[in-house]
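Lab manual, section 2.4: Encoding a predicted structure.

Procedure: take the sequence of the chain (156 residues), apply the prediction step described in section 2.3, and record the output as structure tokens. A sample record is shown.
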Amino acid sequence: MTYPNYPQYQQYFNPNPYQYQPNMMPPVQQPQMAQVQQPMQQQYGAQQGLNGKYVDSIESVKATDVMMDGSIMFFPATDGKTIYTKQLQSDGTSRITTYTAETPQAEENKPSVTDILDGRLKAFRDDILSNFEDLNDRFDKIERQLKPKTTRGKEE
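Recorded output:
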């Protein structure tokens, strides 16, 4: 019996089954794992968060050194009404910016919605009454013009 000639398998054929040959089995290819690239994390210095500290006045902000990398430093005032920022500029000077909280208008000084509506309703009523009085005056005038004039008991 003859076997067809398969050259790709000849290297794996072992005529002596008891003789060890290292290439007896075809090489197994290892599956390639897809490499996952992890996103690069941005570095914000050794400390993550905001740079700065609580201050009592702007004088404390002026006396504090700025970060040389140009990042903004935050200085909230201890009274909670102001926040100062300080940053190194490209010309070598530092810039201080002040943010102040707005205080809402006092509720007692602000008119309520019912007060506004009452005022408008009163103005509307006064306008209608003045128009009504004007119409009454006109009707009275027309009525007087239409009445026949009488002289010594005779109508004219």
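Check your result against the sample. The mean pLDDT is 75.
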